[in-house]
Amino acid sequence: MNETARQAAKLCVLGAAAFTTGLANAEHSELLDVLLKNGAINKKQYEELAKGAQEKEEKKDEENVGISLKKGQLVFKSEDDEFKFQVGGRVMLDAAWYDNDDVSRGDADFGNGTEVRRARVFVKGTMWNDWHFKGQYDFAGNETEIKDAYIEYTGLKKAIGFPLAIKMGNFKEPFSLEEVTSSKYITFMERGMPNVFAPSRNLGVQLSTHGEMLSGGWSFAGGAFGTGIDDDAESGIDESYAGAGRLTLAPIANKTQVVHLGGGVEYRILKGDAGDEIRLRERPESHIADHRLVDARFSNTTGNPLEGDLLKYGGEAAMVWGPFSVQGEYIIAEYDIDDGPSPEFEGWYAYTSIFLTGESRSYKAKNGTFSRVKPKGIVGKGGWGAWEIAGRYSYLDLNDDNVEGGRESNWTVGLNWYATPSIRFMANVIFADADLPNGTSDNPNILQVRGQVDF
Amino acid sequence: MNETARQAAKLCVLGAAAFTTGLANAEHSELLDVLLKNGAINKKQYEELAKGAQEKEEKKDEENVGISLKKGQLVFKSEDDEFKFQVGGRVMLDAAWYDNDDVSRGDADFGNGTEVRRARVFVKGTMWNDWHFKGQYDFAGNETEIKDAYIEYTGLKKAIGFPLAIKMGNFKEPFSLEEVTSSKYITFMERGMPNVFAPSRNLGVQLSTHGEMLSGGWSFAGGAFGTGIDDDAESGIDESYAGAGRLTLAPIANKTQVVHLGGGVEYRILKGDAGDEIRLRERPESHIADHRLVDARFSNTTGNPLEGDLLKYGGEAAMVWGPFSVQGEYIIAEYDIDDGPSPEFEGWYAYTSIFLTGESRSYKAKNGTFSRVKPKGIVGKGGWGAWEIAGRYSYLDLNDDNVEGGRESNWTVGLNWYATPSIRFMANVIFADADLPNGTSDNPNILQVRGQVDF
Amino acid sequence: MNETARQAAKLCVLGAAAFTTGLANAEHSELLDVLLKNGAINKKQYEELAKGAQEKEEKKDEENVGISLKKGQLVFKSEDDEFKFQVGGRVMLDAAWYDNDDVSRGDADFGNGTEVRRARVFVKGTMWNDWHFKGQYDFAGNETEIKDAYIEYTGLKKAIGFPLAIKMGNFKEPFSLEEVTSSKYITFMERGMPNVFAPSRNLGVQLSTHGEMLSGGWSFAGGAFGTGIDDDAESGIDESYAGAGRLTLAPIANKTQVVHLGGGVEYRILKGDAGDEIRLRERPESHIADHRLVDARFSNTTGNPLEGDLLKYGGEAAMVWGPFSVQGEYIIAEYDIDDGPSPEFEGWYAYTSIFLTGESRSYKAKNGTFSRVKPKGIVGKGGWGAWEIAGRYSYLDLNDDNVEGGRESNWTVGLNWYATPSIRFMANVIFADADLPNGTSDNPNILQVRGQVDF
């Protein structure tokens, strides 16, 4: 083989390899340059070939879209990451059994049964790099519920030098670690009872930012919010407005070690119609239950349109140390109804979990939430998945200032099996103990199981 | 052209052809080996190029995702088939006209009209080869209904040596050939009246397997089921549980010839509240009809919470012989209500169809159901689609043991035009003949048409 | 470098370039031909390589699917354009404030608030070139509503020589320029009040065609329609049928200049039950408003089943001249109720808009509607988006022949900011002036804002 033929063949291989690795454009240009220099192509051919490459380059936003199915999540990205699109969702399938031996009030039992706890589909994406959107819908119970529906802009970073996102639409108010952590990633099947105070999703506008801190990071989000999608004229607080904010500090945050401290506050002006009342009630950390135990209702005493205000504040702490973790929150809600009661309610929970298979809970310092657990071995690929056991105590007090909503404390033991990063099976045993408004008590024991997949 | 240059060029073409055929990795390695051997590239270049290929290989699960639009179905697959994702759905558009000359009872007429019979969207996928999921939602009638919502695991095959799938969630109980055949593929616009006995979708857990048999195959599925998503506290049987199973035998099953025999059984413990009743009723094989003709309601006589049990069993037979096919089912339902009636109801249907254009009904022995018909010529591509005519007799008897639900027998003539594999137009004429509980009879004649697309 | 080696290398590069530009098949064949001729490959190799290419060609419908994310729209296409698939949607987020100083009737106020105005997801596609389908669902207000659900066939063009589309399903009747223009592209947040007369989506069958005309184009669509998906037995007109048609003429239609003239007509046979009534009512161009101002209800005087007919007709005109545009419509609705009133209602609107940043409203002559505005600069890419100001007067008269529904005229000032082609922010101020049926009047001033994204 003579030298020139060898060179031609070498270029040929380099070119082919370039296409193979998907770096076609850059490598293609280099190849053309070398071939022109070596005289393998002439100037005119060079220009035509280069022009074709250039035109292609300009169309790449629309044409060179890559797809990924990493962990089963279907994501589309343009080559320059300027555009993204994702279609996904989650399905959670529950069954629950209730032991109602101690029912001392006249209610019907909780109702053993099965349900689709969540059946969600979402579409989300990025357009022109800095514009993001999400639409997420839940069809559980054969009903439709808009979950996330928002537009977000992150382009201010270029002008101001630090990350600042503006978000508008329907999304979770920044309040409570367990609330803002996705239901896909929470440790027990249901969030702890103090979650009754979390405002969850409302329509509003929010600013958020984050930064580095020691070997971890901090985050802040604050916004102004109206009411949720269902809070129409009949809801009694259809014209209430709130401001809410949450600050999280994680001086340590890496793959196996996390120290998280945080706090949130919401202040809301209440405004409703005559006869409206405020109602706070919570199931015993089991969603299939037909009825709630604790249940507080109150209004003004004059029959005027409901007015007043509401201040909620809470503290959060969590720590991850290898397979071991602890987490807790304390939340207080102070209502002040004009010409009515001013009750102050409170709740807290604390839990611990350990991965028998050595994984760690995954933390995202950028927004101060917990995230997806990745098992070390995948079931079906020779592994046994990740196994986690956990225990929780939670407490909720809805009695105060002439309002009798009851008090409840629950012990929960949980077992989680993460068969794959996106498929999880859960079992919870709950020992509930409620002192009810009518002077009776109810102490149901509950067994519930879940199969969950997200995609 | 000297020999070495020729060799270089040949390798080059082989390499390019390899990329073209999508077999880049394997061929690429071979090419590199040959080039190294011929001295066209040196050892160092070889290693670098090989390393690039290796790294690419490792990322292929997430990066090398292929898309297919075969027959309009949008499917994504990772190169090694470990991950799959599909987004699809179906739309069925109906119109119906009712001839109510013989109305001898006081009911309003059936109500000529149009409707969207089904408007479904689904996402389904495979993760890590053996984990499958599906979420399917129907929005017909501007209401939301979860259809399939399940997780399935097929990885036991590796351990036990034969296919065994475990499925949990909301899906069809294994019972009745026509019920478990998708509405996209049934021969008439509506399933025959005995379908009133089919349990359809409920929340449960199922094991299924299948195997070969002579020149065909057999299948078995069995599971334990609760109630459906809508069967909440108000439904009267919210805490009922069932076991169900179905066995199918197809000693012959190929593209043009099928012999199918099967049987199913469901045993259900009924448990409801005081005052609940069981209700079985069925439209005259026309869904736009405002009301049903046969309608049986019964309960216990004591006013105690409804309890009892229920046994359903049915036999199935079908045969395909080229363009000609026959199919039939017989189903019996035996209720036993504590302190109440013990009626036994029954129904059956038989039908035949022939493809004027020579196609055959398509059968899947792995689960004993009928599947998509592929016309020999596609409308718009020079063909005329597939044309099928069919006739059915169906009978339903809801009278027994003090329960008077009525008896009905229907003759149906159907014409199906499969314009493409996924677009079908249907017309049915139904001659219904019902003896109603109140001693009267009703004999409406019905014309209904459908346009259907699935994607 | 000798000539043959150079030639081999050149072919090699050409081949590689061909793969790069996605024209692999055609170029590949040419390359093989040349190589065979030059003796670089022998006849047997040629045949094998050609056979591989041929097989690949046959699989291209399913395998060579391209994806595009142009403007954030996710579109899949097979290489020959025979199959297409798109998943998309829109989210519109609104807030409104009402000034109710002049409320002289006893109604509650309009209710300041926020809402998700539209939250839609659609799937649409093309199969075998000439078959098209679309399914579009809206989940706003946590309710499900099927919007488009249709099948369309465009293959008749080949036989008859001009474009003729047949569409069946649920879609917009061809009537009124502003109605058939997508809500994504209308100039104000809500369509003008005369939109109360537009039939919008119903189940039906339609023929449509279009052609060229001077330097623009014309379009015609006509069809037969039943009622909508929600119009069941209770709606009073559940068995009404209509014919509708719309003709548009655009003698000038290019990117910056449009002259549009059009007209539409709908004739509907009304048929309902005894006691049913016709109701026409409209919000003051603000959807968050809890109640409507103008509201006409009428029926027959005998109590017999409602029967009668209805004729609607309207004229449209619009002009675009660079950044400047005007648009107007006049619609008349003539009801004739058997044994009841025969009122004739009317409404009209006219508006003008100007793009401060120089863009033009975009027009599609093929169906006579307005379309997406593409800003010259994109926010986040160094641009400021497109800015548009607009003013509208609209009038609606629902008083006639013993029917007193009221009269209303509104002035609206609008400001639109198109941050990107698919993200738009809108603000409208509305000065409404209504003379109500009860002899009072109401003149609310309204401020409303919207954030919208479509994908």
What pair of chains forms the biggest interface? Answer: B-C, 57 and 70 residues
Shape of chain A: globular
Q: What is the end-to-end distance of chain A?
A: 54 Å
CATH class of the largest domain in chain A: Mainly Beta
Q: What class do helices, strands and sheet pairing of chain A give?
A: mainly beta
Output mean pLDDT of chain A. Answer: 87
Output the CATH topology of the largest domain in chain A: Porin
Low confidence ranges of chain A: 11-28, 56-62
CATH superfamily of the largest domain in chain A: Porin
Quick one: how many beta strands of chain A?
23
Oligomer: homotrimer
Quickly count the domains of chain A: 2
Query: Largest sheet of chain A, order of strands side by side?
Result: 3-4-5-6-7-8-9-10-11-14-15-16-19-20-21-23
CATH architectural grouping of the largest domain in chain A: Beta Barrel
Question: Describe it for me?
Answer:
The structure is a homotrimer of 455-residue chains. The first copy, chain A, has 455 residues and is mainly beta. The first copy, chain A, is built from 6 helices and 23 strands. The first copy, chain A, has helices at residues 3-20, 24-38, 43-58, 60-63, 156-160, 177-180; strands at residues 65-68, 74-78, 84-99, 113-127, 131-138, 145-153, 165-172, 201-213, 216-225, 241-253, 257-274, 278-282, 294-298, 305-321, 324-337, 344-355, 362-364, 369-371, 386-400, 403-420, 423-435, 441-442, 445-454. In chain A, the strands form 3 sheets. Chain A has a 16-stranded antiparallel beta barrel with strand order 3-4-5-6-7-8-9-10-11-14-15-16-19-20-21-23. In chain A, strands 12-13 form a two-stranded antiparallel sheet. Chain A has a two-stranded antiparallel ribbon with strand order 17-18. In chain A, helix 1 runs antiparallel to helix 2. The first copy, chain A, is globular. The model of chain A is unreliable at 11-28 and 56-62 (pLDDT under 50). Chains B and C meet through helix 1, strand 1, strand 3, strand 4 and strand 23 of B and helix 1, helix 2, helix 3, strand 3 and strand 4 of C.
